[in-house]
Each structure stands twice: as structure tokens, then as C-alpha cells.
Specification:
The structure is a single chain. The chain is an alpha+beta fold. The chain contains two helices and two strands, in the order E-E-H-H. Strands 1-2 form a two-stranded antiparallel ribbon. The protein is flat and about 50 Å long. The termini are far apart. Its main location: cytoplasm. InterPro entries: Bac_CellDiv_Activator, Cell_div_ZapA-like, Cell_div_ZapA-like_sf. It comes from Bacillus mesophilus.
């Protein structure tokens, strides 16, 4: 079994630099970081008095919420396709 090559990518999220190690391309890791940065800035604009820890937690909650909604939509579409085939 071959091991996937890991790459280290430095990204900037909300003014802080992070070194992320992963098997995805550098451009993909930068895209993910950009989305997190955008979401943090969006939440910060609406809640300018949040400290960075609370901002990070609210960002995580928002991202997981979006993920679960999309997952539910995908499962509903898969079920609809399955029902139409059967």
C-alpha cells in the first residue's frame, strides 16, 4: 500500500499564518483557508466586539451548520433518485 505524499502549505487566516500539512494540492488547501478567512471576516463584520476565540468557534459552528444542511440536501436527492429508479 503506497503512502500519499504530504505537502506543507502556509496560509493566512484572519491575519494569522498557519502551516497546514495534507495530501491535497496547495491550491485546494489555500481555497479551504480562503473560505474560512472569508467566513471569519463575515461574522466579525456583524459582531465586531468578538474576541478571536469566540469568532473561531462561531465560524466553526456556521461552517458545520452549512455542511450538515448540504449533507441533508444530498441525502434527500439521493433518496429521490433511488425512489425514481425503483
Amino acid at each position: 500500500m503506497s503512502e500519499q505524499k504530504k505537502t506543507r502549505t502556509t496560509v493566512d487566516i484572519y491575519g494569522q499564518q498557519y502551516s497546514i500539512v495534507g495530501s491535497d494540492s496547495t491550491s485546494y488547501i489555500r481555497l479551504v483557508a480562503s473560505i474560512v478567512d472569508d467566513k471569519m471576516r463575515e461574522i466579525s463584520d456583524k459582531n465586531p466586539n468578538l474576541d478571536s476565540s469566540k469568532l473561531a468557534v462561531l465560524t466553526a459552528v456556521n461552517v458545520v451548520y452549512d455542511y450538515l444542511k448540504l449533507k441533508d440536501e444530498l441525502e434527500a436527492l439521493q433518496q429521490k433518485i433511488k425512489n425514481e429508479e425503483g
